[in-house]
């Protein structure tokens, strides 16, 4: 979820999509499943933390859209590129 203030100033946004691959080690901590020490040991002993990074084309706010619509458009582009579900917050 984005904070809309970043999208209100009228600048150009350079979106980046990052998707972690859990094959060699999971980068996310599930605190209900693992304690912090256990998680840190798993992270430090994993073979690698692999992720895919996509640099998307620059996006600017269109004349007829507000900051929330612009943020949602950027979020949808990132989700589409990363193969993720574009959820409404």
Walk me through the topology.
Layout: H1 5-8, E1 16-21, H2 36-45, E2 50-55, H3 67-82
Antiparallel strand pairs: 1-2
GO molecular function: glycerol-3-phosphate O-acyltransferase activity
Keywords: Acyltransferase, Lipid biosynthesis, Lipid metabolism, Membrane, Phospholipid biosynthesis, Phospholipid metabolism, Transferase, Transmembrane, Transmembrane helix
Protein name: Glycerol-3-phosphate acyltransferase 4
Quick tags:
elongated, 13% strand, two-stranded antiparallel ribbon, 89 residues, alpha+beta
Shape: elongated
Largest sheet: 2 strands, antiparallel
Number of helices: 3
Q: Hey, roughly how much beta strand do the residues contain?
A: 5-15%
The succession of helices and strands, N to C, reads HEHEH
> Taking strands numbered 1, 2, ... along the chain, how are they ordered across the largest sheet?
1-2
Q: Care to describe what's here?
A:
Helices cover 34% and strands 13% of the residues. The chain contains three helices and two strands. It has a two-stranded antiparallel ribbon with strand order 1-2. It comes from Dissostichus mawsoni. One of its GO terms (biological process) is phospholipid biosynthetic process.
Q: What is the gist of this entry?
A:
The protein has 89 residues and is α+β, with helices and mostly antiparallel strands. The protein has helices at residues 5-8, 36-45, 67-82, and strands spanning 16-21, 50-55.
């Amino acid at each position: 979820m984005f904070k809309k203030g970043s999208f209100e100033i009228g600048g150009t946004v350079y979106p980046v999509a990052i998707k972690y691959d859990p094959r060699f080690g999971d980068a996310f901590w599930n605190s209900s499943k693992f304690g912090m020490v256990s998680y840190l040991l798993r992270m430090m002993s994993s073979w690698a933390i692999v992720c895919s990074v996509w640099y998307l084309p620059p996006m600017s706010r269109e004349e007829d859209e507000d900051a929330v619509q612009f943020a949602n458009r950027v979020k949808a582009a990132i989700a589409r590129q990363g193969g993720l579900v574009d959820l409404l917050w």
